[in-house]
Amino acid sequence: MDKKTKNVRNMTHWPIKTPTVFARRMLATPKSFIREILKVTENPEIISFAGGLPNPGLIDVKGLAQAAADVFASDGRTALQYSTIEGYLPLRRFIADRYKKRLGLAISPDEILITNGSQQCLDLIGKVLIDPGDRIIIERPGYLGAIQVFSLYEPVFVPVNLNAGGMDTAAFESAVSGYDTKLFYGIPNSQNPSGITYSVACRKICAEILKGTNTIIVEDDAYGELHFSGKSLPPIKKYLPDQTILTGSFSKIIAPGMRLGWVCAPRQIMDQLIIAKQASDLHSNYLSQRIASRYLEEADLDVHIGKIRAAYHEQAHAMIDAMQDNLPASVSWSQPEGGMFVWVTLPVGCPAVDVFTEALKKQVAVLPGLPFYVDGGGTDTLRLNFSNATPARITEGVERLSKVIQSFNR
Fold first, then answer.
1. What DSSP letter does each residue of 192-237 carry, written as one string?
2. What kind of fold does domain 23-59+303-407 have according to CATH?
3. Residues 89-104: pLDDT tens digits?
């Protein structure tokens, strides 16, 4: 046996016992349920409500292509070189200016760090803030991407129920009082997975409860631009600016494939995030940053986002109307004011995982609610995405889903 063949065989028959070789944190980190579902839903015959994909027809391919051509023509060699950790300054200035315009926040570009999507924001925050055993308050149901990434740092999750107006503020106050809580993570605008938007009163109460504590607020604003009415609700950061980290994303308003997000944090926290970012990947894709910045110089972003809002509003209504027309009265759902999701609660005796399995047989994919809970709940819930299907496909998909649900109620 030659040396090369021997090495290949040794790799194939790895002799090390995996539970002892992998870091402890990996054993406590949940797998991505969505990843497995998306493998199944690659079939174009399947109507998928399972993912969280923006509408591809609303990506301005022509405008982005022109922006890319402009960057290559005017400064291609620089755009293809290494760059600064913090990110392209004109892009950070744009974000800061938009915070001022939309939300009345006085943000310096130095308080903004460009990341590989908003998911990397959460990973960097986890690296610099979370130690094993730290207490983290999250929404119930909570964003599974945050649950997965924070799990790597071995915290203790404290879930607090959502209601129609946002956090259950009485339960939230009880969760905060008398405890040393490292951070609170929430999505006040069009929450993922529930679609719920916090009322202004809820935001103020949450800020008041956390005022004077050492708890850091991580306010995920991936969907803030997608309120169907076009209005911008005040962020929690407005009430506790020095205690709040804001995260944002271009994935929902320009293109997810560019992998561009950002984190906005107080200076002391930002210094640590920059160190973690440098250690992680040196800097985010500089070419994408330059193309996005050029695109934003030329495009009317407000007009573009207005088209997205209008389309998503139509798609959301198509889903709600189809559910009202087809689903049994024992099924309930959220009424999203924006974003990309509807949250469905199934009747007793109708397990979500079984609905998922049977629905796939009818070529419609849904996402069971189980992975959005850290305490074993959600067995009777589904998250449905409306942004990646036409109204006609939404109606057809809901009709198929209704037949599945009704089959469990006989």
1. TTT-----HHHHHHHHHHHTTSSPEEEEE-TTGGGBTT---PPPGG
2. Aspartate Aminotransferase, domain 1 (3.90.1150)
3. 999 999 999 999 999 9
